[in-house]
Amino acid sequence: MEGTKRPLIAKSGRTEKILVATCTSSNGKPPSTVTWDTKLKGEAEFQEIRNGNGTVTVISRYRLVPSREAHRQQLTCVVNYQLERFTDSITLNVQYEPEVTIEGFDGNWFLNRKDVKLICKSDANPPAHTYEWKLPNGTLPGSVEIQNNTIFFKGPVSYSVAGTYVCEATNAIGTRSGLVEVNVTGRTAPGLLWNVENKVGRETNL
């Protein structure tokens, strides 16, 4: 079996199926049966060539629309000839632009909370080589420090860090972005509130 020499690139909106592998069983008499074993959602086409010596060469070509889901999926050609069975496999390498998610905001960023950060993660092939953070409605707070795909918020949390944070990830195929809405609440940390309530309760009972 021979895999395609062309790079497999997933593109948004693409519907054209391209050739990814060719499986050939030569000079069979009777001809071999060629099938494909895979979880991929492609289609196979078959061709029989009758040779001058009475044998038959069977060629099957497998085509699909490159996608993120097809990356690292196995494609196996199965040849059955009389009582014998032969298999050959390839693993697809599909390139695709980043799919971006942002982690770190847990919905509980309260005033004076410390050690918070946002992490931009991307699923991409090849891996993302550049990350860029933006705040569409203004500039990033002066209290942040950016290290590659992570924003560290220095010092205690204040209302100034609230906003919509956008991360753009770029690889050789393209650029995609993700966003998270950060809200800051004015309530006290849960542990501190519990201590205050219990202290008041003890004083009331005196």
UniProtKB/TrEMBL annotation:
Report the principal subcellular site. other
Question: Residues in domain Ig-like?
Answer: 1-93, 98-185
Keyword set includes ATP-binding? no
State a GO cellular component annotated for this protein. Answer: plasma membrane
GO biological process terms held by the UniProt record:
heterophilic cell-cell adhesion via plasma membrane cell adhesion molecules; homophilic cell adhesion via plasma membrane adhesion molecules; protein localization to cell junction
| Pfam families for this protein | C2-set_2 (PF08205), Ig_3 (PF13927)
Its domain of life? Eukaryota
Q: Tell me its family.
A: Belongs to the nectin family.
Its subcellular locations are: Cell junction, Adherens junction; Cell membrane
* Alphabetical keyword list: Cell adhesion, Cell junction, Cell membrane, Disulfide bond, Glycoprotein, Membrane, Repeat, Signal
Q: What is this protein called?
A: Ig-like domain-containing protein
